[in-house]
Amino acid sequence: MDHAAEAHRTDLMTIMRHVLNEQSKYPESRGDFTILLSHIVLGCKFVCSAVNKAGLAKLIGLAGETNVQGEEQKKLDVLSNEVFVKALISSGQTIILVSEEDEEAIFVEPSKRGRYIVVFDPLDGSSNIDCGVSIGTIFGIYLVEHKDNPTLDDVLKPGENMLAAGYCMYGSSCTFVLSTGNGVNGFTLDPSLGEFILTHPDIKIPKKGKIYSVNEGNAKNWDKATAKYVDNCKFPKDGSSPKSLRYIGSMVADVHRTLLYGGIFLYPADKKSPNGKLRVLYEVFPMSYLMEQAGGQAFTGKQRALDLVPNKIHERSPVFLGSYDDVEEIKALYAAVEEEST
After folding, report:
1. How far separated are the first and last CA of the chain, in Å rounded?
2. What is the four-CA torsion angle of 200, 135, 142, 144, rounded to 10 degrees?
3. Distance separating alpha carbons of residues 12 and 187, to the nearest angstrom
């Protein structure tokens, strides 16, 4: 690549330019959705900057302690949550917010209400900050049905109803991956411009991958289908090469790699967590939406992940997501186990 030429490109596709181009395809559009996304992007830039300084803050005794003025320094996940809640409410486009950090849903006051519901995990994998592992923000957007009288029922809808979903990964670079229902695009933050630039247009996950990603420390608690699938990954019966194991333990990073390189990410139910560990609304749904938009699949062990209808805002579910053929394989194993038991 000619880096000198690259550095002087003048036709940069920024994330807002991309979203405005999408908006122009809908003449009836009022730009509300674009305003909402611009606030999400701003929140991600703020958190990216805070994450980069987190190690230093710890070094000089700030994070989570009281500073000399007697002001308490906020932990990064709490700070990130406040940033997103304020950014989303101030956009004037939201009506209900569901955050991983807040026990209850936030209903926006009538004077600041818009038409959109946003579900989000402000800082997924925050326990990994101290060791420099990639972490991220995950979000999903729905359109409200009853703007005048919003209730939790407006939120407890299948992932199939999502308008858009995405995540921002804070790692060696800051990467924003977004789908508004027309495929998946990846943007990378250019720190010199302060803008997200389109670097991964129209991401398509390979139909089959060579990587599986799962916490094998839980193997003794797995069900039969998961155990058999992982065994097949290591010791294929058809003479093919075994799959490689890659597990970071930060969902955004593991899913990002799976999306780009193919393969499968598994977080199954087990004896310790019979309902799985990942939260449906702001982890399983957005990532499943992105996988399907990129040509992959997402499965819960019983059904297509996006068909799930949650009963509680912090409900959990198992999930298997990734390359189409790899997920097809685990679906077949679950079907076989079910058949055996009937």
Report:
1. 58
2. -150
3. 11
- Does 211-341 match 3-200 at the fold level? no
pLDDT digits (tens, 9 = 90+) for 213-247: 999 999 999 999 999 999 999 999 888 899 999 99
What angle in degrees, to the nearest 10, is found between the helix axes of 224-234 and 324-341? 140
Laid out side by side, the sheet with 211-213 consists of 244-245, 211-213, 264-267, 319-322, 297-299
Domain boundaries, given as residue ranges, for the chain: 3-200, 211-341
Map tokens 């209730």 to a residue.
151
Average pLDDT, the chain: 91
> Helix or strand or coil: residue 25?
coil
Name the burial class of residue 246, with classes exposed (0-12), middle (13-18) and buried (19+) by CB atoms within 10 angstroms of its CB. middle
119 sits in the region (left: phi over 0; alpha: psi -120 to 50; else beta) called beta
Question: 211-341: which CATH architecture?
Answer: 3-Layer(aba) Sandwich (3.40)
pLDDT of residue 2: 53
Pick 3-200's CATH classification: 3.40.630.30, 3.30.565.10, 3.40.50.1000, 3.30.540.10. 3.30.540.10
Residue type for position 224: K
